Amino acid sequence: MKQDRIEIIEVGPRDGFQNVSEFIPTDIKLETIDRVVNAGLRNIQITSFVSPKAIPQMRDAEEVTRRCLEKYPDIRIFALVPNLYGARAAVECGLSELTYVISVSETHNRNNVKRTHVESFNELEKILNLFPDLKINLDVATAFGCPYEGEFSIEVVLGFLERAYNLGVRSFNLCDTVGLAYPSLIRSTVENVLAKFPDCEIQIHIHDTRNMGIVNSLAAIECGINKIQTALGGLGGCPFAPGASGNTSTEDFVYMLNKMGYKTGINSDLILSAAKHLKEKVEGNYSGHHIFINKNKVSTQ
Ligand code: COA
Ligand code: ZN
């Protein structure tokens, strides 16, 4: 093990919920965040400040943010924004950390945020200049390939990161937006990124389209990444990326890491009951079987 402490970053309240068509009442969103916090998570993407026409599910972003800021002053909470408009709204609500998203695939970027690369990078620069104290994580969407444009060479991916690095970004989240990655691609990409950007924080965000979410996330850990994004219940998916399924499931990933001896700080049973509870309340495409183990029974045969 290169590192034994793994930080799980919960993105279910954003990536998981954005793909649920029926509006989830704000109180259920907040209750889910509460359960995730009670299970031990300390780093949560709570919502996104996006156009309600694009993602109606996120229309309560302001209320979710204000209530979370009030309730969890000591927890790292942040939101996704696609543009300056969203960044302003999030900062006005009091957030000090944001995810800004640009796709390596220009086609996906146009579909997702209706912008060319030049437009998205220009807006990123404006946000960095306007809010110098804001922590910006860049979601590098489609980093492992895109349904429209195929796989990207490592030079393209590194060049993309460099463009943002030159503007001042020091935190990158490599996203397998559609779930096209496989462990050797994760390894080669992560190794190259870590070698070229040793002064940056690197996270990984995987979709489980071909049931490779867990092995891909584990491959990243084995290359030295210690910040992994997952979503409660394995919900998730980008409405503008055809074929995308849910994220690596938080409860399954935590179960595996805890069993393997990594320190996550998360209680496996509490996160599992949070997932079960959510499944009872919100209809969605869940992964995992949500089985509790009787710890008092250890069979010797
Ligand atoms: N939050 C809320 N409203 C926003 C907004 C934001 N971040 N950005 C723009 N708007 C509003 C504008 O005020 C305008 O409102 P109006 O119609 O009442 O005048 C409307 O949305 C259209 O504005 P425009 O700048 O023309 O946006 P657009 O239609 O080109 O859409 C995005 C661009 C980025 C706002 C939209 O595509 C979006 O929100 N995408 C989110 C994608 C996403 O979340 N994907 C999954 C996560 S990666
Ligand atoms: Zn995602």
Write the layout of secondary structure elements.
Blueprint: E1 7-10, H1 12-18, H2 26-39, E2 43-48, H3 61-71, E3 76-81, H4 84-93, E4 97-103, H5 106-113, H6 117-130, E5 135-141, H7 154-165, E6 171-176, H8 183-196, E7 201-206, H9 213-222, E8 227-230, H10 250-260, H11 268-281
Parallel strand pairs: 1-8, 2-3, 3-4, 4-5, 5-6, 6-7, 7-8
Helix pairs in contact: 2-3, 2-11, 8-9, 10-11
How is this structure best described in words?
- The protein has 301 residues and is of the alpha/beta class.
- It has 11 helices and 8 strands.
- The chain has helices spanning 12-18, 26-39, 61-71, 84-93, 106-113, 117-130, 154-165, 183-196, 213-222, 250-260, 268-281; strands at 7-10, 43-48, 76-81, 97-103, 135-141, 171-176, 201-206, 227-230.
- Helix 2 (26-39) runs parallel beside helix 3.
- The mean pLDDT is 95.
